[in-house]
Amino acid sequence: MLATVSVALLAAVATGVVAFQLVRQVAVAQTREVLRSTIQVVAAAPAGDRAALVRNLDRDRVRGIRVVLVRPGGRLTPASGGGVPSSAFTRLERTGSVSERVTARGRTLLVEGATISGSQAVVATQDFSLVRAANRRLVERLAVAVALGVLVAVAVGILVARLVSRPLRRAAASARELAGGRRGLTAARRAAGDDETRIAEVADIEQALASLDTALASSEGRQHEFLLSISHEIRTPLTAIRGYADALADGLVPQAALPTIGRTLVAETGRLEAFTRDLLELARLEADDFAIRPEPLDLVSVVVSAAEAWRARADALDVRIDVHAPMPVPVSTDPMRVRQLVDGLLENALRASPTGSVVSVDVTSVKDAPEPDPAGEGAQITVSDQGPGLTADDTVDAFERGVLHDRYLGGRKVGTGLGLSIAARLVARLGGTISAGRADDGGALFTVRLPGYRSGLEHDRVAR
To answer: N or C end of the chain: which has fewer CB within 10 A?
Structure first.
């Protein structure tokens, strides 16, 4: 409102100043035109009648105009000269015309004069104070119009201020409530029948707050589910450890069972350790606090070394790991993070693989991939198993932390629910992409694409 009124006042002042100058100039021009018209009236009269006409015009003094006829020999009609300064008659005699503003006896006069036929001249004058009075009346009317305009501007400013500030105050209150932890404000406001604002910009703010409300509610819901999942995952090994610890403390465990109980405690402790490690790794990935150190390497060698490291675990499960890599695949990336990524995918595949099945790992360049990208540079890693596979919904939610864990808990072997989420974040930091699908034999298929030699370096600079 203040801005609107300020602009209106500035516009009114500027308009008043300009209008005053224009009005004064127009008024002076109109007065001079009237004086010239009076001279033309006298000039149009017969020479013998001009003196009588001039005396009549000077006596009537319409609009305060005085007329003087100058005849040969310098005789004036009326003889008093109508108060016209002698300098005006001198200039008229010398130049044949006069148009000026002169001051005589404390008065300012507008003087117009011209020589007419018969060696006569006519001079018409008007007191400039009359012009000023007319200007003053016009300025007063202009001031009234400007004042009315300012009042209208103030009224419109107040209306607009209220119209804008009401939804803005409501938006500010909603933001404070969101900061205080309240959710579902949009639904509550619609249920209460609050009207939507008609101001587009304010409506955008309210829509943004509504989106934030929905996003916060969804995020906090996922966090709540994740915490429930964590509590369940931790409680199971802790219950086993506590039970055996109580039995050992009470001396209820026979000597022969100690090795078995020890192995169980080691396994459960390993589960807790792995779960804690995954949580810490996920926290680091989400905090984005670790550096990517790319270097030229052969991606095949990294994948082969990872497969060799997991081969003992695979043999214990009676699962074979096959690596298919027809040629070296050079890339520039972080070997430690790639190894971490492949380890996570192999662990996930071995968990889902039934006895006697095969886990296949294929490493190719992007140009030689089953779905090639001729314009691209980089490499592709696919890891597939012969387990129960993924549904269409699973492929969409595969990389959301804990979703598949909660979906299949109790129905199939599941891990901590964090492995695929960690893999997705690792791939993103490496500048690549990861997708989930269904293998030809029905198992799960995960495809990773990493940028090439130059792309990897450029991505690392962007990431940093």
So the answer is: C
Judging by DSSP bridges, how do beta strands 444-451 and 433-438 pair with one another? antiparallel
How far apart are the C-alpha atoms of 266 and 275, rounded to whole Å?
A: 14
Please say if the pLDDT value at position 240 is more than 70.
yes
Report CA-CA distances (Å) from 327 to 52, 233, 299, 330: 125, 42, 10, 10
Which tokens sit at 11?
A: 């516009």
Residues 233 and 356 in one domain: no
Does the pLDDT of residue 62 top 70, yes or no?
yes
In angstroms, the CA 23 to CA 28 distance is 9
Residues 327-364 have pLDDT tens digits of 888 888 888 889 888 988 998 899 889 999 999 999 99
Q: How far is CA 179 from CA 27, 250, 261, in A?
A: 66, 51, 50
CATH of the domain at 224: 1.10.287.130
The 10 Å Cβ neighbour count of residue 373 is: 13
CA–CA gap between residue 91 and residue 97 (Å, rounded): 7
Domain boundary among 135, 166, 200: 135
Q: Give the separation between CA 120 and CA 68, rounded to whole angstroms.
A: 11
Alpha helices (runs of H) in 45-97, residue ranges in sequence order = 50-60, 86-95
